[in-house]
Amino acid sequence: MKKIIFYLLLLFPFYNLQAQNCNCGDNFSFMVQHIKKNYVGYADKINQKTQKRFEYLTDSLQKVAHNTGSNKCIAVCREWLGFFKDGHMNISFNESSPKDEIRDFFSKEEKTIWNEEKLKSHLAMHKGQTDSIEGIWTNVSNTTKLGIVRDSLNHNEFIGFMIKYNTAMWAVQQVKFRAKKTKGIYTFTSFLARDHSPYPARVSLNKDTMDLKEIGKFYKNDLPKNTSYSSLNPKFKKLDDKTALITIPSFYLDYKNETDSLMIKNASILENTEHFIIDLRNNRGGAVGAFEKILPYLYTNPIFSEKGQILATDDNIKDGYEKPLPDLPEDLQEYFKKIISKLKAHRGELYLAYPADTIKYDKIFKKPSRVSVLMNDGSASASELFILQAKQSKKVKLFGTNSSGSVNYVESVTTQMPCNFFNLIYPAARLMRASNDGTDLGIKPDVEIPADTADWIDYVKKYKTKQHYLKSVAAIRIAATFTNPIDALSFLSSNPVDLIFLDIHMPEISGIDFIQTMNNKDAQVILTTAYKEFATAGFDLDVVDYLVKPIPLPRFLQAINKAQKIINTKKIQTPLNQQDDDYFMVKTEAKGKMLKINIAEIDFVEGMKNYIAFHHNGIRTLALLSMKDVEERLPKAQFVRVQKSFIVALNKITSIDGNRIILKGISAEILIGETYRKDFLDMMKQKLLL
Fold it and tell me: Is residue 528 very low, low, confident or very high in pLDDT (cuts 50, 70, 90)?
């Protein structure tokens, strides 16, 4: 197994000592030219379709930048970078600058007349008359304190200002946000991030707790006891006898040793646990090497990792790959020295630095037998690379919402701009998948979790696959399962079935389109989805039932019973001349001759190139038919196909010995084909007396 592939997805900043120039127009021009020359995704993103839009945006924002103060320049630059829709591109503020210079840089930001003492006096004077959001709020780590007071000019609007902070970028009384209240709901009309740029923050209020979502929780007056600070440290927990959970907020190398230690410490638990949940929600990435101890527990088959290229420009080599990283292990430092040498030998090229690789392990763990990965739009970069590898396993299922879409372009380089306060960040490497996946919409989960689901962990714990339920119903034999609807349509065109379980959300076409497209109109359909709103469309297509995930077993069985009644009723109503009879006639190899075959006398059917051989009543009859023709004609309750060239009568099977079927009164043994083995043995197990 290759040990190092895209090991560092974030390369640390390299600061040039150069003359200070914080003119926004000049910094904007520098950014545009630098990205055009050095951003590895530029040629993918700027093409014939996007060129005019891109040029218009660039020209427009360049004019805006010339009239923008340096303290507001980051927002203008970020608007331009947003065109690329790349999560690895950003303008960051250099907080390593001298604190007095940082304070001076942000000294002109808006201030309010309110301060802590004045707010306390106001609250005491109007006790019982103020709004519930008014007051002094402290974050869980006690590093930031905000004051919130009603705007004197608008009764339903509020001003949030700084009282305490842990950065030189903010000063007492500076306005952090403005909010309004509509029908009891609070929303921000403006909110400034740590670097004073606009930020789309969200808020919800529950008594003395104010939840700012991604930013964290704030508490009015005193912090509650036993409140733990939500850190990026990984956590492992055994939820019950069958389920273990690991939460990994970050794949940064800072937390790799801790993640590795948790996996080693809890190895015995994992090897005796049926269900392993990996929570990667809001994991913004880090390094691929950070999850190397997790992969063995997911592994069922070789894992493919894609090729990767680096745009070998002088700037990328200098600002990204030549930057000393003394904290890296010695083997990695040697590895990067070799990479740098190769990049210099291929200056100006899109160099294939990372060949395609296949990860293989010697052992496949029986447990955990089921692995669920939780993901959302905050799962980015290295966490998406983990998801791409994990989804190749047969025991892994992805739950949640689409990931960030930040996986195609990686290995971020940090370059100092003309203004020493600004750092330009962009990727220098790309995966080959970027050539075929330019949408950057993120990785789609196997199971979408509804937006109104409060507890995702509980949802995944209770989730049962349709196959799990179907195997518990003796009357049902699974003909086939598909993740690709096009493959399913192809199968149905030549394989009649009685019942289809169908998801609404599928790749390429929806479940509704699938029903309208399929040829097998006699099959009954049960729709499954995470969204209730599609029920009407489903019933308009005359489906049997509509199941909303997670599906409780009683509700599943109710739908099965409903489908069985419809299927049985249709069979009873089928005209006699269309029903399966107890015999049929076949043309033999003798010209003009037909022979009667009694179905009850058939031992097995053998495919022989252009002919079919019926073995019945001690004789063999050849007929010019295909296996498909015979399989469709024989009663499914009495016959089963066990390999490409054999169909056997169930009532003639006397024993099964490993991979061999022994038939009554027949000396020949029939081998079970690999393609049909699982379905055949599952059918036999339903008859197994324990």
Answer: confident
Question: Across residues 609-629, what is the average pLDDT?
Answer: 83
577-591 pLDDT, tens digit each: 444 467 888 876 666
Q: Which residues contact 450 (CB under 8 A, 6 or more apart)?
A: 530, 531, 549
At 17, give phi and psi (nearest 5°): -85, 100
Q: Which tens digits make up the pLDDT trace of 417-473?
A: 999 999 999 999 998 877 664 446 788 888 888 877 889 999 898 886 555 666 556
Residue 188, Cβ neighbours under 10 Å: how many?
20
Parallel/antiparallel/unpaired status of strands 209-211 and 204-206: antiparallel
Confidence of residue 216 (pLDDT cuts 50, 70, 90): confident
Using CA atoms, how far residue 4 sits from 119, 282, 284, 291, 430, in Å, is 56, 24, 20, 12, 16
Token duo for residue 596: 């009667």
Least confident of 88-102, 375-389, 538-552, 556-570: 538-552
Residue 439: its pLDDT value, please?
46
Burial degree of 57 (CB within 10 A; 0-12, 13-18, 19+): middle
- HSE-CB at 511 with a 13 A cutoff on CA atoms is 23
Mode of pairing for the β-strands spanning 243-247 and 235-238: antiparallel
For residue 244, list its beta bridge partners.
238, 276
Note whether 11 and 413 are within 8 A (CB): yes
Please determine, for residue 109, whether its predicted confidence score (pLDDT) is greater than 80: yes
**Could you give the C-alpha distances from 352 to 320, 345, 502, in angstroms and in order?**
17, 12, 42
C-alpha span between 403 and 377 (Å, rounded) = 4
pLDDT tens for 471-502 read 556 566 777 777 678 888 888 877 778 888 88
Q: Residue 477 CA to chain centroid, in angstroms?
A: 31
3-state secondary structure of 568: helix
Q: % helix / strand / coil in the chain, to the nearest 5?
A: 30, 25, 45
* pTM for the whole structure: 0.64
For residue 155, give every residue at least 6 positions away whose Cβ sits within 8 Å of its Cβ, in sequence order, or none. none
CB 5 within 8 A of CB 354: yes
DSSP symbols for 432-491: GGGGT--S---PPPSEEPPTT-S-HHHHHHH---HHHHHTT-TT-------SSHHHHHHH
Query: Can you list the domains of the chain with their CATH numbers?
Result: 116-195 (no CATH), 464-577 (3.40.50.2300), 580-685 (2.40.50.1020)
Of 530, 531, 480, 486, whose CA–CA distance to 508 is shortest?
Answer: 486
Q: In this model, does residue 6 exceed pLDDT 50? A: no
d(CA 416, CA 18): 9
For residue 540, what are the CA distances in angstroms to 484, 497, 512, 545, 567? 24, 21, 10, 11, 19
- Which phi and psi (to 5°) does residue 520 adopt? -80, 80
Spell out the residues 6+ positions from residue 448 whose beta carbon is closer than 8 angstroms to its own: 400, 401, 505, 530, 531
